[in-house]
Specification:
It is built from 17 helices and no strands. The protein is globular. The protein is mainly alpha-helical. Helix content is 68%, strand content 0%.
Length: 364
């Protein structure tokens, strides 16, 4: 029975933190999605004419609404299960990278506890685009660490089917191959992923191009510019609920790089690569866009604690205290954030929360 204690505690943490969101119904983009389902039925899975091609996310929303109808409790329950499943995969990836169960479980708990990142994606059905992308991106990397490159490529295709921002996981897989596999053959094992990426680009080419959008378009982007620096800075500070916690994150990630250079710098590269898609957007900067970069941050934090220069028992206690404090802080945060409503004096771009969700909840 002991082996089920930590999974059960992780599941309980998910429920305590996020189950209260089940009181809310469908919001904003959910309603647009539902209108399309009601009027058109099965979503059009063709990429032709589409700026965004996310067929698996659309199929998920169709299946959820078909199964549960106007009762939004169904999608909330599925969101809890999906978050738990993703946290368990975070644990598997962390275990594969560090060969340490303490680091692995601590990473899973830190991932779940990051309510300041998860909140918006957990509050609406269309959060599946981000939640599905991170789950399958993690499965892609985990399968690759196990030497299952074809299965890994399949999970990569699934991640792209939820959201295109999962694309940099291809580079993460190649980085893993370069760092943790024989240099002569390691990168070549990623050839199925390159094939998947090429097919995805070919399908995207049939749709409307996102390049050349006018600067005023909500989804306008640019690869170079001060906005990239600003956005990366925002996302780094948004990984923690308060500035002091951000400093702890930076210190622990830096210590992980110092003590375990190969693993530490791989985690830093992983996080930065996954921040590229949201950071190039000119006008959109939401906390939940950073969800794909959250797993390496959580793992890096735990690696840093694991390498802290104190006795093993004190390291364990420190990690438990930090994880517990993070869970408690985010419990209070998530309970109060929605009730507090919207501070219209703070632009959404600055606080990182999607005000459309909050206004929709408040009937505005």
């Amino acid at each position: 029975m002991k082996r089920f204690r930590l999974p059960a505690l992780l599941a309980l943490t998910v429920v305590i933190l996020y189950a209260p969101l089940g009181q809310y119904g469908y919001v904003h983009d959910d309603r647009v999605m539902i209108q399309n389902i009601v009027s058109s039925g099965m979503p059009d899975l063709s990429p032709i004419g589409k700026t965004f091609y996310r067929p698996l996310g659309s199929l998920y929303c169709y299946a959820v609404y078909t199964a549960f109808g106007a009762n939004a409790v169904g999608f909330h329950v599925l969101a809890l299960l999906l978050l738990l499943a993703t946290a368990l995969v975070v644990r598997l990836v962390a275990r594969a990278l560090t060969n340490d169960d303490g680091v692995a479980w601590g990473s899973a708990f830190l991932y779940v506890a990051a309510a300041n990142i998860h909140l918006d994606a957990q509050m609406w059905m269309v959060g599946i685009f981000d939640n599905g992308a991170v789950l399958f991106a993690l499965l892609c990397l985990y399968a690759f660490t196990r030497g299952q490159q074809h299965l890994s490529a399949l999970w990569f295709a699934c991640a792209l089917g939820f959201k295109e921002s999962a694309a940099p996981i291809l580079l993460v897989v190649i980085a893993y191959a370069l760092l943790f596999r024989p240099p002569a053959k390691g990168p070549l094992r990623a050839w199925p992923h390159v094939v998947v990426a090429a097919l995805w680009v070919a399908m995207k080419s049939l749709g409307a191009s996102g390049a050349g959008l006018p600067d005023g378009d909500p989804y306008a982007w640019g690869l170079v510019g001060w906005h990239v620096v600003e956005n990366v800075g925002r996302y780094i500070t948004w990984f923690a609920p308060v500035p002091l916690a951000t400093l702890v994150v930076i210190i622990m990630m830096g210590w992980a790089c110092f003590r375990q250079p190969r693993t530490g710098w791989f985690l830093v590269a992983w996080a930065l690569l996954m921040l590229v898609p949201p950071s190039i957007l000119l006008h959109h900067a939401f906390r939940y866009y950073a969800i794909l970069a959250l797993p390496p941050i959580a793992i890096g934090m735990m690696v840093g604690f694991h390498e802290f220069p104190v006795a093993k028992e004190w390291r364990r206690r420190m990690a438990i205290v930090v994880v517990g404090a993070t869970i408690l802080a985010n419990l209070f945060f998530i309970q109060g954030h929605v009730r507090r409503g919207i501070n219209d004096d703070v632009p959404a771009r600055d606080d990182g929360y999607n005000h459309l969700i909050r206004r929709s909840l408040q009937g505005q």
